[in-house]
Amino acid sequence: MPVAVITGASKGLGRALGAALAGRGWDLVVDARSAGPLEEAARGLRRAGARVVALPGDVADAAHRAELVAAARELGGLDLLVNNASVLGAEPLVRLEAQPLDGLRAALEVNAVAPLGLVQEALPLLRASKLFAGSASSPHTGDGDAPSSHTGTESSKAPGSGGAVLNISSDAAAEAYETWGGYGAAKAALDQLSAVLAVEEPGLRVWWVDPGDMRTDLYAAAVPDDDGSRRPLPETVVPALLRLLDAGAADGRYAAPGLLDGVR
After folding, report:
1. pTM
2. Region Disordered: what ranges (predicted)?
3. How far is residue 189's CA from residue 169's CA, in Å, rounded to a whole number?
4. Which of 26-30, 219-223, 235-239, 241-245 comes out lowest in average pLDDT?
5. Domain ranges for the chain
6. 3-86+104-211+234-255: CATH homologous superfamily?
7. Rounded distance, CA 109 to CA 186, Å?
């Protein structure tokens, strides 16, 4: 069975994606900072038939990152690494004149430094993966499409040459929104790291995805005056992420809206 590591998997998009992968027969290593909510999420994943290793901890901790990769190795390898864990750097968000510098450091550490550290730890397993072997496009039976709204170069990578890295980004990485400067800077750093990783690791598929604003605890903490009721639930974004897998999509940045429109 294919194996995925998903950070920030106790709630929101990480939990929703984990449930979808478990339903497809994936085995999972999941992480979050709070042990109770993580174990609750893991129980639901196990009910879907997945083997699940739930490891509470902080992705900013190198020892914890090594533990996540070791758990994947015990499950048989690593085919998909999902860097989803995130912090804002200030709650609620504030203008740059009031941005706590310690908060900015934390945002950079969790949103950019930790994902790179986890990639570094996981590279041997990702390089050995045969995620797309046996198909010109997909490890699963799908509709052949993946998200459009794509920036980057067309992939010439051969199927079966390695695993995939999915980094969850934000439109704040590419647009200038008042009060989103610290968080946006951290996600912009993640985008650039992702783009360079795609060039340096031609055997991997590397996707960095802006899922759009969602009805999550993170968004509520960022903008508490917005009740979020008009924001889509994270579950509505998951089909687009699955279609990246189903299509073996080209490396690049994928962004909402239009995430479900088709693929290059």
Report:
1. 0.88
2. 136-163
3. 10
4. 219-223
5. 3-86+104-211+234-255
6. NAD(P)-binding Rossmann-like Domain (3.40.50.720)
7. 8
User: Is-cis flag, bond preceding 37, omega within 30?
Assistant: no
| 253 bridge partner residues | 151, 208
Give percent helix, percent strand, percent coil of the chain, each to the nearest 5.
40, 15, 45
Sheet with 80-83: list strands edge to edge.
Answer: 52-56, 27-32, 3-6, 80-83, 164-168, 205-210, 252-255, 150-151
Rounded Cα–Cα distance for residues 76 and 209 (Å): 27
pLDDT, residue 234, reads: 81
Cα–Cα distance measured from residue 225 to residue 238, given in angstroms and rounded to the nearest whole number: 26
Handedness of CA 113, 64, 22, 42 (dihedral sign): negative
Kindly report the number of other CB atoms within 10 A of residue 88's CB atom.
21
Q: In whole angstroms, what is the distance from residue 109 CA to residue 86 CA?
A: 9
pLDDT of residue 180: 87
Average pLDDT, the chain: 87
- Name 227's Cβ contacts closer than 8 Å, sequence gap at least 6: none
C-beta separation of 78 from 127 below 8 A: no
Q: Contact 139/235 with Cβ under 8 angstroms?
A: no
